[in-house]
Amino acid sequence: MSRSSTFPVFDQFVTATTGRNMTSAAYVAVTCGVVAIVLLTVDPAYPALHYLIYTALWACLAFFVFEWVIRLRHAANIGRRPAYILSFRGIVDMASALAVPVALVAEISPRSAWLLGMFWVLKVVPGIRGLRQLRRVIVQESGPLLSVLVIFLTVLFLASVAEFVLEHEVQPAAFGSVPAALWWAVATLTTTGYGDVVPITPLGRIIAAAVMICGLGVFGLWTGILATGFAAETRRDNFLRTWEHVSKVPFFATLGSSAIADVTQMLRTIDLPPRTTIIRKGQSGDCMYFIANGEVEVDLPGKKVALGEGAFFGEMALLGNNLRSANITTTRVSQLLVLDLVDFRLLMARHPDLAETIEAEAKRRAQENK
Question: Cyclic nucleotide-binding domain: which residues (predicted)?
């Protein structure tokens, strides 16, 4: 008998554990582990909760060791063990499972050894979609980011040398060497300004002001590069998700790829829970909706009509009277594609066949509603 038929719960755990995101149990283990590590360093709490803290820490460690073994075995079964071991997730899993035991075997004091449980926090990183997106942005914008880094290091070095030349005679303790001046340069260029080391010569202060201004410019460049790259990556992800939904709507099935791309750029996606009112009767209409997933209910006089995946609604307010003619509510979790009025008119101008289909459907519904 196969293992999957004998231990279905175990198989489900293996599938969830080896997936891309963390399981709920892993999040609970990380949270409990972090709390226990924090309490480990608090003297009033440590003596009182000594046994409870170590019980929680050992339980978390056992879970992470078991999780690591499961992932190693799964990677071996699919022939990807070396790739997993050398990946970020593999390194974090190994450190989470082995760092504390190795420290305890090396006879490091338990309170210090368990602080290596800080690696557990890194386990949440692969499961955070935004961080994966940020990593792609950093890789794609690595050239501009490195260019700004070169500017930063250049200004840092030149400022250190300049202040050494100007200040080492009057402040030998603070600016007695270029490495000593680097502390001042880093604090000034990052605009931190601790104030523990400051130039006192007039020319030295002028250079310090220039360095502070350069610091604002350098970090402004880094921020601009990351913000622009992140916005572009977000638009790309939204485009791909919307493309996937548009291609599933039968109404757009006859369009070619270029036309679908054109439509995708006009649509925006919204996710709605059940029993959410989308349209209220009598309101002004400025958009229409396509149902990518889910179902809505149209409340007409004397009857209610259900519209499912692939249907569209809200077009009648855009074609004639701009007032909504019925209340429309979701009946279950639904994903809708929204087309605004301006884009609606642009789409109708570019694709007359779609315009004819929408107008024909609007006339049919108008006749049914009389």
Answer: 251-365
- Cα–Cα dist 120/38, whole Å: 13
SS3 state of residue 297:
strand
- Structural element, H or E, at residue 182: helix 178-189
Half-sphere exposure of 228 (CA within 13 A, CB side): 10
Of 89-98, 149-158, 299-308, 341-350, the poorest mean pLDDT is in 341-350
Give the three-state DSSP class for 196: coil
> Would you place residue 2 in the very low, low, confident or very high pLDDT band (cuts 50, 70, 90)?
very low
DSSP 284: B
Q: List pLDDT tens digits, range 213-231.
A: 999 999 999 999 999 988 8
- The whole-angstrom separation of Cα 358 and Cα 360 is 5
The C-alpha atoms of residue 64 and residue 29 are separated, in whole angstroms, by: 8
Amino acid at 117: G
SS3 323: strand
List, in sequence order, every beta strand (DSSP E) within 237-333: 268-272, 277-279, 287-293, 296-300, 303-307, 312-313, 327-330
The owner of tokens 């022939």 is 79
Predicted structure pTM score: 0.59
